[in-house]
């Protein structure tokens, strides 16, 4: 063997050995990675359906519809609004006590008695009758800062933001007054709000409703009408709520979510494999919704009857 070839041969063998070693190492790493990925897929499958693809970015025929009370906000928005109105002397302690009793009765009884509902609705409308819409809107902005801003569920807000980031519209759908819902939607950067409409003439509330409360099946009809006007495909839309009263709305879309669900909705959602999200902590007694504060603070729950019974629980 010529001297030069002899000197090169060990180097060739050494290079080949290194190549073999590199190839074997890569193959072993690939096997380990493959096994790890397979394990992760199995774990994901066992934990339930994964959701990395939802909401779909750029799907403008999809939108999201969020209930407000106990879904986006802790407690009833109208309860907090009522506290602000009482603070500003829109009604007297006697009315507040009556509203509070109606609220407590409804929460404990768990049924919607027509007589109680009618009384609560009439009381609520009497509060705003004769006031200008612009006045209530201005006060609503103040009340949001005082009582509502700190009660938004971060988890639900993140869900809404995910839809916005995907280029989709996000709407609040609530039995609360549309003025209150619109303020909250604007503050959260959402698209808009569907809410109960109180009649006004020349910018002044008449003490009557336009139609009825946006509650239960009415919410589903509002979503259906908006979807038609916006050219949305409801099968690609999502809806979020805490209440079994909103099952009609949740059943309307292809992606229903039960958020902080009440007992009936939780059971219904599990039976149908709907997605569940619960951002509450501590005792579930908070779900009852009766104010914990004593004295006037507790009585302030009556405004939730004045408007929460009147608007949400019809």
Briefly say what this structure is:
This protein has 314 residues and is an alpha/beta fold. 54% of the residues lie in helices and 13% in strands.
Structure description:
The chain has helices at 3-47, 77-87, 93-109, 114-128, 133-148, 154-165, 178-187, 217-230, 247-252, 263-271, 296-299, 302-312, and strands at residues 63-66, 169-177, 192-196, 198-201, 204-209, 238-241, 255-259, 275-277. The protein is of the alpha/beta class and 314 residues long. Helix 3 packs across helix 12, helix 4 (114-128) crosses helix 12 (302-312) and helix 5 (133-148) packs across helix 7 (178-187). It is elongated and about 90 Å long. The termini are far apart.
Mean pLDDT: 77
Going across the biggest sheet, name each strand in turn.
3-2-1-6-7-8
Which percent band covers the strand fraction? 5-15%
Helix content: 40-55%
Order of helices and strands: HEHHHHHEHEEEHEHEHEHH
List the topology elements.
Layout: H1 3-47, E1 63-66, H2 77-87, H3 93-109, H4 114-128, H5 133-148, H6 154-165, E2 169-177, H7 178-187, E3 192-196, E4 198-201, E5 204-209, H8 217-230, E6 238-241, H9 247-252, E7 255-259, H10 263-271, E8 275-277, H11 296-299, H12 302-312
Parallel strand pairs: 1-2, 1-6, 2-3, 6-7, 7-8
Antiparallel strand pairs: 4-5
């Amino acid at each position: 063997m010529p001297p030069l070839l002899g000197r090169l041969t060990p180097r060739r063998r050494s290079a080949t050995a290194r190549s073999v070693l590199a190839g074997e190492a890569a193959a072993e790493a690939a096997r380990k990675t493959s096994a790890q990925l397979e394990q992760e897929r199995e774990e994901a499958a066992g934990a339930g359906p994964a959701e990395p693809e939802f909401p779909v970015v750029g799907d403008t025929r999809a939108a999201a519809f969020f209930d407000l009370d106990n879904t986006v906000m802790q407690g009833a928005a109208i309860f907090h609004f009522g506290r602000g109105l009482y603070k500003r002397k829109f009604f007297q302690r006697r009315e507040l006590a009556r509203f509070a009793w109606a609220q407590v009765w409804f929460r404990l009884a768990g049924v919607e008695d027509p007589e109680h509902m009618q009384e609560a609705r009439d009381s609520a409308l009497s509060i705003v009758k004769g006031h200008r819409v612009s006045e209530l809107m201005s006060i609503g902005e103040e009340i949001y800062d005082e009582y509502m801003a700190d009660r938004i569920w971060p988890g639900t807000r993140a869900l809404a933001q995910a839809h916005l980031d995907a280029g989709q519209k996000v709407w609040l759908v609530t039995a609360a007054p549309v003025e209150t819902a619109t303020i909250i939607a604007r503050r959260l950067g959402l698209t808009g709000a569907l809410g109960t409409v109180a009649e006004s003439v020349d910018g002044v509330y008449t003490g009557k409703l336009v139609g009825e409360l946006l509650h239960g099946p009415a919410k589903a009809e509002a979503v259906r009408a908006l979807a038609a006007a916006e050219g949305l495909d409801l099968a690609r839309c999502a809806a979020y709520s805490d209440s079994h009263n909103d099952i009609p709305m949740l059943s309307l879309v292809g992606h229903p979510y039960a958020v902080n669900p009440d007992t009936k909705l939780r059971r219904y959602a599990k039976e149908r494999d709907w997605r569940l999200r619960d951002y509450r902590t501590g005792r579930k007694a908070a779900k009852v919704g009766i104010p914990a504060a004593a004295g006037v603070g507790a009585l302030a729950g009556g405004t939730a009857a004045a408007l929460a019974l009147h608007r949400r629980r019809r």
